[in-house]
Amino acid sequence: MDETNEVLRKAPLFEALDEEGAAALRASVSEVRLGRGQTLFSEGDEGDRLYVILSGKVKLTRAAVDGRENLLSVLGPSEMFGELSLFDPRPRTASAIAVTDAVLAGLGHDDLRPFIAQQPQVSLQLLKALANRLRRTNDVMSDLVFTDVPGRVAGQLLDLADRFGKEGEDGLHVHHDLTQEELAQLVGASRETVNKALAEFALRGWLRIEAKAVVLMDVERMRRRAR
Amino acid sequence: MDETNEVLRKAPLFEALDEEGAAALRASVSEVRLGRGQTLFSEGDEGDRLYVILSGKVKLTRAAVDGRENLLSVLGPSEMFGELSLFDPRPRTASAIAVTDAVLAGLGHDDLRPFIAQQPQVSLQLLKALANRLRRTNDVMSDLVFTDVPGRVAGQLLDLADRFGKEGEDGLHVHHDLTQEELAQLVGASRETVNKALAEFALRGWLRIEAKAVVLMDVERMRRRAR
DNA sequence: TCAACAGTGTGACGTATATCGCACCCCGGT
DNA sequence: ACCGGGGTGCGATATACGTCACACTGTTGA
């Protein structure tokens, strides 16, 4: 539970609180452990909990009637999800599935409510988080309209690099933990097209493909290709 | 200024306040009048004001480098926009342009801040509004991925019908005030394709096309076509 | 140790949709 | 009254991408 506190401290929601408040909030946190591929909740479920990722990665997905899937986002440590149901008590509109083994902190609506009422910083922090998410989502939307598949793949890889990238000898290692199928669902394209785009980038020497990871070797060119 | 108060009273942000608070907030409101086609603010501008539409319609647009445009949304009376910059003080990420003559109430960051601190209902209301927007935006994103252009057009018309529709003798009148070009930008498609989709719907007797409006005559079929 | 299977790589083909081209029509301004 | 331009209707052509098909590889686990 020590690393729990460690990561929670960095989560925006807790950062806003004084030591006392943070301790009180932590007390009502429940820990959840998920194995790779395990579902935390599904579209349509009732839900009144918000989660902060302590370790691992989680994907948020939506399914069409015919079974096709679409990834809304992939989240990593210290990131938050499931807040929508707190302010808008309707069934979940996406499923949450662990991409890797993961540990989460779960926080109920009722536990959080008093903090919203008494500590304006908390609501402000939540508002910031939502505003940010909305901006990002709008960006993704514009990309879907304006940019072709290779461009979206490049953009998505750069985004993943920002969040999960580690600088190395031979380039920027992005261990995204996604299959190409999942990457395809994330950019709204078919697995095959994404595969071909990746192959093309590799051929040009812009990146190297590894298992569930890529190594970016020419970030500048990737950036130009994305827009 | 009487109708101003009338519409403001209905706006979610004000609904949450007691009479006293609402009066105080209204006092710091500034009124803005826009002519059709006039720009309120542009992508990249600094901005620390939020707007509530009192009358008329406003579109939020983003432009690609090559000049193509994409409509994020079209908003009508009592709807709010520009809040993102309040919690996340970065330049505006979209332009706001009047689709019809319009009157807006503008509210500065600094005017609103004390209310967020002291009246938790206000932040709660804002959180609800943002959560709702996020859900809608995610819906639109899924549509872009899953649904073909005619489907998206049908869906968008139904959405506009919900917000601007008026039941009439001969069907549900949706006076959206958009050119087909704008409608196309709203669903992320070309003007021509949207035109053909509309023509197809009209041919089947599902709707009638009027100047900057449509009359939905078979909502059920439209709804089935959308998903 | 091998079977089974999930994930990946790549070509052939079909199709939705963008792009281009043009004709028409309505409406507002001179 | 008429001209001009923005908005619309619609066919011909080009193309990016999805779908299908199959072969290859690596990993898991019996």
Automatic annotation (TrEMBL), chains A, B:
InterPro entries per record: cNMP-bd_CS, cNMP-bd_dom, cNMP-bd_dom_sf, Env_Response_Regulators, HTH_CRP, RmlC-like_jellyroll, WH-like_DNA-bd_sf, WH_DNA-bd_sf
Keyword Phosphoprotein assigned: no
Tagged with keyword Transcription regulation: yes
Gene3D superfamilies noted in UniProt: Jelly Rolls, Winged helix-like DNA-binding domain superfamily/Winged helix DNA-binding domain
Stored Pfam families: cNMP_binding, HTH_Crp_2
Keywords attached to this entry: Activator, cAMP, cAMP-binding, DNA-binding, Nucleotide-binding, Repressor, Transcription, Transcription regulation
Domain HTH crp-type: 147-220
Tree of life domain: Bacteria
Cyclic nucleotide-binding domain: residues covered: 13-133
Record CDD domains: CAP_ED
Any one of the GO CC terms: cytosol
GO terms classed as biological process: negative regulation of DNA-templated transcription; positive regulation of DNA-templated transcription
GO MF terms, alphabetically ordered: cAMP binding; DNA binding; DNA-binding transcription factor activity
Protein name: CRP-like cAMP-activated global transcriptional regulator
Organism this protein belongs to: Streptomonospora alba
Lineage, broadest ranks: Bacteria, Bacillati, Actinomycetota, Actinomycetes, Streptosporangiales
